[in-house]
Batch of 2 targets.
Target 1
Amino acid sequence: MKITMVGTGYVGLVAGTCFADSGHDVVCIDIDRTKIDALNAGQIPIYEPGLEELVHKNVKEGRLSFTTELAPAVGASQVVFIAVGTPEGETGDADLQHVLESARQIGQALRHYTLIVDKSTVPVGTADRVREVIAGATRVEFDVVSNPEFLKEGAAVGDFLKPDRVVIGTTSERARRIMDPRSAELTKYAANAMLATRISFMNDIALLCEKVGADVDFVRKGLGADRRIGYPFLFPGIGYGGSCFPKDIKALIATARECGIEFDLLRAVERTNERQKRLLVNKAVRHFGSLAGRPCAIWGTAFKPKTDDMREAPAIEVIEGLLGKGASVCCHDPAAEEIARRHFGDRVRYADTPYDALEGAEALFLITEWNQFRYPDFDRMKALMKTPVIFDGRNVFSPTVLRDMGFVYFGIGRGS
Ligand code: NAD
């Protein structure tokens, strides 16, 4: 089948590449010429495990190509996916300008019956708007299908190739009843809202643990063992970030408000998340008094492990908080250094290894739970640091082991 992917970001590049790997002919389109030039030169603009090899293989075998020219690809395709960004708008609602603009361009380029599939995360009713925009630009027959994407950055290729579920919403008579587009659109937001709610719920429980002297690790295990609840997304930490949860929660609140519903539960989820992002800096101020002039090391700037994505990353809030209080910051991230440099410039220093970041540091802030941070050489760390103080934002280390070794340890919800 001939497929066009409009939007070659995290979702479009992964989806397009995986479709090509399944034997389809795929053209990935983007308006960002730099990105397309890089891809045509064999460079992958994002860090995603397993993606680079897959892109190279499918380009070499002639099933995958990249271009900024939308019309020829769309005109030759049976299926066109929209996978452009839907960032947060000015009032928290989803900004649909890229979706509607690509719909207009797709409409102008249609040559025969084509299935248009919306993969971007979009508010309820967007499939209808996309249909109207395309209908205004063509006389060719087409259908619009909603097919929200559930892949996770860091595990995107595996998630895409072996998803838990594929949600498809359509009113097409050709497809007969599957799910309607509005239900499909809402399913995506409801899923992210539920996961974010679990995280904030655990973060509130963690706060309570600190107050009453309980250990959130035990509570989490006891809670997750209940099969009605389960273990995933019960980890306390310094808040969720990334390109999806923050904007999708806001968009769902905005959709509800347009319908006259105040989604109080989700507003509380957001408030808890904002508080969590400030937690470590507040703990540091309580411990040190003043942070002015104190060298601090940061391990991890990406919003989660195995990605270079720093959109809405808690690291941004932590680093800005430290800089705002006069601390100096040296950070290390296995994949996101380039993006961190774009963000902070020379306001912070960048270390090639986790240990380099620790030299002379008075405190370590562990922000992203990359596997390579889990079992470090603690003796070496202690020797490098000026004072052995650790603020563990992801509860990666054992408090007892570290305290026995002479570290001052602060975690989340672990009685400190
Ligand atoms: P992204 O910002 O990484 O990529 C979007 C791409 O679309 C950019 O390269 C941009 O240049 C391009 N673009 C914008 N307008 C265009 C146009 N008119 N024609 C061609 N290209 C255009 O975004 P992303 O993370 O891939 O997310 C895309 C959508 O998928 C969003 O709605 C997001 O919420 C959703 N989603 C993302 C994830 C994720 O983990 N990143 C997971 C599931 C769903």
Note: The chain has a mean pLDDT of 97.
Target 2
Amino acid sequence: MNELEDIVCAPDDRLKTECAPIDEITDDVRALADRMLRDMYAADGCGLAAPQVGELVQLVVIDVDWTEGKKNPYVLINPQIVVADGQERESGEGCLSFPGIQVQVRRPSHVIVRAKNLDGDLMQYEAQDNLMAICLQHEIDHLHGVTMVDHLRPGERMRTMREYQDALAHGARPGDVEVED
Ligand code: NI
């Protein structure tokens, strides 16, 4: 399947669903992680969550270094935010499930996340004031049916969704941040 066509775009109920924890790291889980990394790199994204490829399980892939041209992928299984604090900061976010738009989202600037990796080891990730801190929160939100537009105030969300429909009508595809008129 074409990688970009594999990505679920809003609106879709699968993006609004609480995802199930993964009990056992099977070949299917490893294959899903591979598929998600392939899709994420094909779309030039820095993160992708399982529901974005239609799989309602708690798996996230992240690579915040990819934009600098080198691959450094993280696979997070059943990730949990154990600390989210620090001064809140607003930054521009995009999402492969919302092609063609970017929104300003406020989030805590410091997070600590615990997750299993593909070997079943419990890992801890700490990030502050960087893309990783944003990406961890954005992707883990997806596992709980929350997308970036859910962080907007109602009026702003309506305006954003109109902008998004317009971007889709102009042919935006996953990975596009803005589409030329
Ligand atoms: Ni997203």
Note: Residues 99 and 174 are 5 Å apart (CA to CA).
